[in-house]
What we know:
The protein is α/β, with parallel strands linked by helices. Helices cover 49% and strands 14% of the residues. It is built from 40 helices and 32 strands. The protein is globular and about 90 Å long.
Amino acid sequence: MTKWTEEQMLAIVKGNTNIIVSAGAGSGKTAVLTQRVITNLKKGMHINELLILTFTNNAAMEMKTRIKKAILEDDEIKNEAKLTDSADITTFDAYVLSLVKKYHYLLNLDSDITLIDSSIIKKKKKDFIEEIFEELFTQKNEKFIKFVTDFGTKNARQTKKTILNLDYSFDLITKKEDYLNNYIESYYNKNNLDNLFHQFENTLLKRVESIKNLLLNLSFEVDSDYYDKIYKTLEPLLKSSNYQEIRSNLDFKLSPLRNASDKAKYYKEQISKIIKDLKSLTEFHEQVLKDDLLKTKEYAEVIIEILLKLTQKVNAYKFEYQVFEFNDISKFALKILDENEDIRNELKNYYKEIMIDEYQDTSDVQEQFIKYIENNNVYMVGDIKQSIYRFRNANPDIFKIKYDAYKDGNNGFKIDLNKNFRSRGEVLDSINQIFNHIMDDNIGNANYIKEHQLIFGNNTFIEEGNNNYNNNLEIYNYLPDPNFTKEEMEAFIIANDIKKKVTSNYEVFDKTLRPCKYSDFCILIDRTTAFDTYKKIFDFLNVPINIYKDDNIMISDETSLINNIIKFIINIKNNKFNETTRFCFASIARSYLYQLDDQTIYDTISQNKINESEIYEIAYNISKNLDSLSNEEIIKKIIYDYKFYDKMIIAGNLNYRSIILDNLIIKFKELNKVNMTIYEVNDYLDSLINDEESIKIPALLNKNDSVTITNIHKSKGLEYKICYFPSLHKEFNLMDLNNRIIFNTKFGLILPNYDNGFKSTFVNFLNKETYIKDEISERIRLLYVALTRAKEKMIMVTNLIQNDNCTTDENGIIDYLTRINYRSYKDILESVYPYIHKYIENIDLPEINIGYKYSQKNTINIDIEDNHKIIVNKKEYISELINEEHYSKSENKLITPTEVANMEYGTHMHYILENTDFKNPDYSLLTNEEQEITQGLLNNKIMSNIKDANIYHEYEFIYENNKQIKTGIIDLMLEYPDHIDIIDYKLKNTNDPAYLKQLNGYKEYIENKNNKPTYIYLYSLLNKELIDLNKN
């Protein structure tokens, strides 16, 4: 019989009120929740009178199985078992879908509602945006034309992409159309402007609070005379309570600090930086800042008009074909409950208790739904420290607000389960040591040191599992080697360490101590980009490894093959024997379906014998009936006629490939629902591939004896004996903040105003600060989830730099400004260096054998004369086929992976520069390398008068000349009163003669348009060199 703790028993039996259970990692929450169900049944409730909601299908299935098993083991309630299969133990999505299907007639919906993949709707949205832009251009809508002129041109690719992204953000609004219709009036009124400014004011006051923390730390490093002097200077600022007072109390000079320690110098430098920051942020009067925000209204009106048109078109499309996304279903359910009191009351009275698992992952829509049907009977279980799905619209504030209210006895009851039964005490102590200093109510959303510390609960580790090892956290600290990437070094360190532990029979505890196995080890990484490197190195060192991650079927062999076969069939039907046809033939011929060698393929193409092949014959037969077959019939015929299932045995991994084919068949069936022709399906697949869209299939957990490598999100709910944590140096992705137009439900549309260049408003700063705080909070919670997977040992692999300048508040929490400037997990660890240095072990790198890179068969590329061109590896071929109508350089050659990487980095830096305000640059989101490149450009002599210029980034133009349409995109154009400078960025190489022709084309257009002397330049980002092309 299970021995429950006092807190667990309270969570099992407490009733007659709303209850929130804060269940820390390893606290046995699933067992508690199951036992509460059994207890409720014994009180006379029936299983079908409980609504039990989880967030994944697997969790719902596991919960149902657990509950049924527990019921069958208890004679008192075993009759409930027959009701279990039909009981509402399900996901939120599945439950609201069943509700909408039940009351479909109230919304004029079909009873058999079809859920459609969001990628299909996304494609339609892109088409609709094209239509809307064309319509507004045709109408010569002046506001719209000004908007796209300021933000782009008629083609306006980036602006269209921005509209698409904004629409997805607005989709989170429950009553989207009402919100859009009322947006301008509700946003640009005095009350809202005052509210936004008050929030901006609070962010400034947090900086004042940081100065107080720095002063506190400085007081321990300087004599009392100096401290009294600097405190007296800062006192008016420290007592400031609003924007105007801060602005008025910044006119002072700090006393110089002489003969002081490095720590003292650091603290004073940080104070000076904050004061400089505050001076910049309070440069203008409050009303000037509000007026700047009001100037964005005209842009907002255009955006809202476009979004309203788009919403109406999308809704009409969905209702016409009766196809909807899950977000639509949730909104329909809310609409049913909102407009039908009798249905609300029926549900309120029917369910004796509503139980919600993983409550920390609840979204605003889900919370609103529960509010409609609750009756002081909601039982919520979760852990805010494990809220890691903000990208799926989870709102941790929902849990936090309830938790804080219930602990004060307002509207509910709060229970804490902090005792951990999963991990050794040393593991928990190490976790507490880190999170005591980095997680609080403000960042991380939990007062860790006061309410959330993990408490050791599994005494069997002491009584029977004492292995006499060092079970504390270990940090393997290494010095980087310029000859290898950090991923390579860390993979070799980990692989060798695991191998050593396995071969030396390192003991782990499994009821008794036993030698470890490979399956006891897990490698947890924040992202999946390094997985291939680990796979190659572990295979090379003969350490078995299993990659546990969701797969994207869009990059699978099967999807590529099916798409190329369809393209091949369409071209045969249309009697087209062009380069695309030849490429498709080569792709099919080289695949596992035929495995033809390169010489045979070359001979078949060069001798015009494609139509004599079996590949052609099958495609030709299908093409004859192409227009009379449904999409589902076509893909099934392709799979059957080309014998995919028979031939995939050669390629191996049969189960995985079969799952992909099954998913493709389902996808094609969905496309039938919206009457997509096979030609449109082909375009749809192309757009998914070109836009690098993902269609995911869930990962399968391998139960073989192998090391698991996975990302932190996938690891949630899992546990391993020994966990490694590499790639801690990888920078967090905050690139969304560089978008020029953003929507946030708290701050609305964040837009710049345009006055001789784009200028950010105070709301932009407010949004940036809030976004970063929320993102860093989530990263801290992710780190918590990662570390709490370990049962017996945590090992971090990184290259920490000693940091003794630790700024904390009076409770030992790292200062707010330090934390919102975290840009990697390495930054987090270095900020608490004084608390964790005892865990650091400086290690030498193992011998790294570069041979692992060549252990796999290389791809062979073959060249064929121009009239029979084959591109064997399409992803490593760049084809910007141009004619004299385009001002762009042609690159028709096969390129190396290094060149691909350089081009990708060049594109990335273009994006960085496009989104940087050159007059008031903000480097806070950039890496050191990005900052150095950007500063190199801005410090160049050509930028010396940039304050006087109108700045145009990525200026795209289209015009007609001598019956030719000419287009181009100018990286940077600086318009001065008497001349114009055009600057084209290159990553490194500036010597190609084609660049001169390209820039002269730009010059011709701009001079004709503006009647100003125009000068052209190339700028090498890496060499920081400006090339003057005007003398050529």
